[in-house]
Amino acid sequence: MKVEAVGERVSVLGEAPHWDNRSSTLIYVDVLKREIVRFDPQTKTESVVTSQDGRIGTAIPYAEDSSQMVVCIENRIYKLDTGTQDKTLLVELTESAPSRFNDGKCDAAGRLWTGTMPKLVNFKKPPQGEHNLYSFSNGSLGLGAPQVSFSNGMAWTSDNRTMFHNQSIPGTTYVYDFDQNTGELTKILTRVQLPTKYPQSCCFGGKNYDVLYVTSVSHFPKTP
């Protein structure tokens, strides 16, 4: 397997990679620079799609129009027009503990899944189940899994019957039974303790898409 750096940009905190089939480009966010970035593997160029005034957790194009994106910024979810840069507020979240949306992905039915994490992380006193995993569809935000400490990336098996969800704290990947029709997480199948302190995002890859890859971070930079 060949591993190489494909772009010259150095992200402060790169997260939430999403492959856009229509443009054959990779979209990801730089959380702390508050930017959405598009990488074109044909030209090997990176361009900033937008800069925002809050930390961006995830950005995913709409199926019907790739110039429109659903974007999580701090504790709000917006519809962003990348052409005009206009934002439409879809939902604003208030939890008992100060929080923001982090990494997110869409399932095969088009629901946005995203979880929350502390606005400021105190590793001397790490969060203990004060946040949640949510699904967003048809203008409504639903609770997917409660008592999450530090939500991060997620992925599904090819048959859409199993969902994986990373929690950077306590450093565990949770594996759920998943009902694609209802979007319900029916039960936790297992918890996978990883050989890293802070797992981040995850996705399936390999020739048969049967290998789950999980990224991690060695330490978290101070957040503004």
UniProtKB/TrEMBL annotation:
Record GO terms (molecular function): calcium ion binding; gluconolactonase activity
Listed cofactors: Zn(2+)
Alphabetical GO biological process terms: L-ascorbic acid biosynthetic process
The record's free-text note on cofactor binding: Binds 1 divalent metal cation per subunit.
Matching Pfam families: SGL (PF08450)
Residue ranges of domain SMP-30/Gluconolactonase/LRE-like region in the record: 13-186, 187-217
Superkingdom of source: Eukaryota
Binding-site list for substrate: 100, 102
Keywords for this protein: Metal-binding, Zinc
Family stated for the protein in its record: Belongs to the SMP-30/CGR1 family.
Protein name: Putative ca2+-binding protein regucalcin/smp30
Native source species: Ixodes ricinus (Common tick)
